[in-house]
Design brief:
- With 118 residues, the protein is mainly β.
- The chain is built from no helices and 11 strands.
- The strands form 2 sheets. Strands 2, 4, 5, 6, 9, 10 and 11 form a 7-stranded mixed beta sheet that branches.
- The chain is globular.
- The relative contact order is 0.31.
- The model has no long low-confidence stretch (mean pLDDT 97).
Length: 118
């Protein structure tokens, strides 16, 4: 089965850091552009970063100076290093790929929850 499995979420204080991981299986990971997205409470899905097959990345302006996306094709894994977190970063973070259809990407994991609170 095609699957994405995120991990690494949790509770962190403002100003803290977390690193999220996402393992892909059931498809040719190294040939697949990946992305990170998030959904804050009561809001729609928000794109965060793209991680392309060559390892290049492109992130939203709201996070580009604090978040770093990367991938390890040998491990079928993408990462999201998040630094200087604020309460506005509280959300469920998803690893995904493909097109956004009816509010969800065509391939999307179950998500990992990040809560930024003191």
């Amino acid at each position: 089965d095609v699957q994405l499995l995120e991990s690494g979420g949790g509770l962190v204080q403002p100003g803290g850091s977390l690193r999220l991981s996402c393992i892909g299986s059931g498809f040719t990971f190294s040939l697949t552009d990946m992305k990170w997205a998030r959904q804050a409470p009561g809001k729609g899905l928000e794109w965060v970063c793209n991680v392309y097959t060559d390892g290049s990345t492109f992130c939203a302006a709201s996070v580009e100076d604090r978040f770093t996306a990367s991938r390890d094709n040998a491990k079928n894994t993408v990462y999201l290093q998040m630094n200087n977190l604020t309460s506005n970063d509280t959300a469920v973070y998803y690893c995904a790929s493909g097109l956004l259809v009816k509010g969800k990407y065509t391939l999307q994991g179950q998500g990992t929850r990040v809560t930024v609170s003191s």
